[in-house]
Design a protein that fits this description.
By secondary structure, the chain is of the alpha+beta class. It folds into 2 domains: about 90 residues, no CATH class; about 80 residues, Immunoglobulin-like (Sandwich). About 35% of the residues lie in helices and about 20% in strands. The chain has 5 helices and 8 strands; from the N terminus they run αααααββββββββ. The strands form 2 sheets. Strands 3, 4, 6, 7 and 8 form a 5-stranded antiparallel β-sheet that branches. Strands 1-2-5 form a 3-stranded antiparallel β-sheet, with no helix packed on it. Helix 2 runs antiparallel to helix 3 and helix 3 packs antiparallel against helix 4.
Length: about 210
């Protein structure tokens, strides 16, 4: 099966989903042993991404000039991401597991029957944008169209305080208590039904 990174989001996605996807790519490729020599380097891409995020925040304040600057920073970032997608495609060389581990969305291959889905990987948790929030991401599961998430205190792992669904392999939980340790797990749903639950991702909230 010939699989490649999907790059349609470079131009089709709005600012928020585009930002989420780039964040995931940088998180999953960082120190990923399957991609030892990214080209361009992740540092270069991160610098361009940071500039784009600053320009996006400025554009939200309004003004034709700010909007033009944001669009220019996005075009510069997209040019680098296209190069990175080419590197990922060449390095993965058609291997689905390697490609998924890059964080890039994948192109839908030709129609192939998909059986029961495996459980997702344990989510990787990171501090969210505000106090009391946590971001969870996993490599996408091929064939999944819905992800079911649940969150519990590590001290009471079967008492689920929040549940959520997403179509992307990422979620943001809010309104958590600083200093508490939380577990997050998920399953995924495909044409053949629902997978088993993943292992927990665990993090102390700040």
């Amino acid at each position: 099966m010939n699989v490649k990174p999907s790059i349609g989001f470079f131009t089709k996605d709005g600012e928020a989903p585009f930002t989420d996807k780039v964040t995931t790519i940088l998180e999953w490729m960082n120190t990923n042993p399957k991609y030892p020599t990214p080209s361009p380097t992740l540092t270069v891409v991160q610098t361009a991404f940071d500039a784009y995020k600053v320009a996006t925040a400025n554009a939200a304040q309004g003004g034709v000039e700010n909007t033009a600057i944001r669009d220019a920073r996005r075009a510069e970032l997209v040019a680098l991401l296209r190069q990175l997608a080419n590197y990922v495609s060449a390095t993965a060389n058609g291997d689905l597991e390697t490609l998924i581990s890059s964080g890039f969305p994948i192109q839908k291959p030709n129609r192939t029957p998909i059986g029961p889905l495996p459980p997702p990987s344990a989510p990787v948790l990171s501090q969210g944008p505000v106090t009391g929030s946590v971001r969870a991401v996993v490599p996408p599961v091929y064939g999944a169209f819905i992800y079911n998430w649940r969150l519990a205190l590590a001290s009471a792992p079967t008492v689920y305080l929040q549940t959520a669904q997403s179509t992307a392999a990422r979620i943001l939980f809010n309104d958590l208590t600083a200093g508490q340790v939380y577990n997050v797990e998920l399953n995924c749903v495909g044409a053949a039904g629902t997978s088993d639950w993943s292992d927990d991702g665990t993090m102390r909230i700040i």
